[in-house]
Every structure is written in structure tokens, then in C-alpha cells.
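Box 3.1 A note on notation
Throughout this textbook, protein chains are presented in two layers. The first layer is the amino acid sequence; the second is a C-alpha cell string describing backbone geometry. Keep the layers aligned when reading.
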Amino acid sequence: MSPRAYLKLSVLVALATIGLKTAAWWVTGSVGLLSDALESLVNLAGAVFALLMVTVAAHPPDAEHPYGHHKAEYFSSGFEAVLILVAAGAIGWAAVQRLIAPQPLQSLGLGLGLSIVSSVLNGALAWAMLRKAREHRSMALEGDARHLFTDVWTSAGVVLGLLLASATGWLWLDPLVALLVAANIAREAVALLRVSVDGLMDRAVEPEVQRQIEATLDGFRHQVVRFDHVSTRRAGQRRFVDLHMHMPGDWSLGRAAALRTSVEQALMSAVPGLRATIQLLPMDVEAHFGDTRDLP
């Protein structure tokens, strides 16, 4: 399936888990299960927004966006991180209220069963989505998958807390687990937000991609051709590399352009989704960057 198909499935699963977890909270009165249900609402909002951003990212380049719309996926992960933080605050507030005024738990068997079913759904979907995200280098899909994994661990913690509260009679364990859940998903949100911001700041390509680029260029390096000022960046599923190729000044323009075309094709074959821009320069000409006279 495509990333968009997985995100559509994520929306359906989020709706199902909201129903299951809300029912679990309703029959038990557990604030831990309430926190779990609130996070599922965030899952739904995140999946819908991720689907929208993936659709935008798939649009071809245009006059106003000549490099494409791939960075839209980073907005998706950033938006989801903010939603997670809001959910963490709501969970923490509800947990503090229950710590102040503990309440007995009811129908734990049914409530825990519903929570476990929803966790199985989320876990299976998250595993499949994470594999697809790595295959397509989709930030939106990866953000949604990691959020679903967080939801699975959240549910596991809630179930454990409820079992301990039932076994010991310590009702304060239920809101305590909810507070731990809030802290955990807040930590996940901060990490996701950091990745999103990092992507918007033109981070270099991954080390393994950099090695592929260098290995490809090594195949063209010889005494009369050299490369320098190799710089890379990534934008969603796209990868970009800019470099200078130096060659003898007495070469014809046709010969130089033919070699440049061969290098570009080799680079784009070695790294799917890569866009290469190569500037031709004579061997005895150097381009300098970072001169203080060039700064505003």
C-alpha cells in the first residue's frame, strides 16, 4: 500500500480505538483509561493532518515551489507533536484531580479487555506503517507510526496500573499511572518536534546516503577530473546534492556536459529520489564560500 493508504487506514483504526477506549473508561471510571482515550483523539487528529500533508507533498513542483512540496510532511510531524503535548496536559490535569479525590474502579475485566483489543490494532498498524515509512522516507508516516507505538506503551502502562490498583486496593495507583503516561507522551512529543524542526532547517542527508554519493563520485575521479564543495540536504522524501566538478580548461563544452550528465545519472541511480546539481569549472579555478565580504 502507498503512504496515503496507510494513513487512511490509520484514521479508521483511530476511530475504532476511540470507541473501544471510551467504552473502557465508561465502564470502569478509570482516569488511566480516560487518558488513553484522550490520546486516541490525538491519534485521529494527527492521522487526518498527516494524510493532508502527504497529499500536499505529492504535488509536483510549480512556479512558486520549484523544488516541490516535500517539506509539508515536516509540518505534519510538528503538528502531531503539539497535539501530543496538549493531550499530555489534559491527562495530567485529570490525574491530579483523581489523586485529590480517588474513586473506586468498576468492571475492570471488560474495560481491560477493550483496551487490550485497541492496543493490538494500534500495534499491528504501527509496525506496518514504520516499515513503509522507512521504505518511502516519509516523515509524516513515521511520525504517525511512532505516535501509535507510544499509544501502545501507554495502554500497557495503564493496564498494569489498573491490575496493581485492583490487587492492592491502592486507588491512587490509577492516577499515578496516568501522570506517568502524560510524562512519557510529552517526552515523545518533544523528540518528534525536534525532528520536525531539524528537517525544516535543511539537514544534510543520512550518513549512508552520503557514503553512496561519495562512492559514486569516486568512480569518476581521476587525474583530470575532481569534485569539491559537495553539499547535501533533504526535504521529506527528496534528497538533493550540489557540487562542483573541475576539468581541464581546454575541454569542449560538449565533452564537459556529457561527463556531467553521466555523473548526474549515476548519482540519481545510486540514490533513488536524489536530485543532483553540478556546476562545471576549469581545473585551475576555485570557488570560495564564507567570505566575510559576502555577508550582509
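The CA atoms of residues 260 and 273 lie 18 Å apart. Residues 291-296 have pLDDT under 50 and may be disordered.
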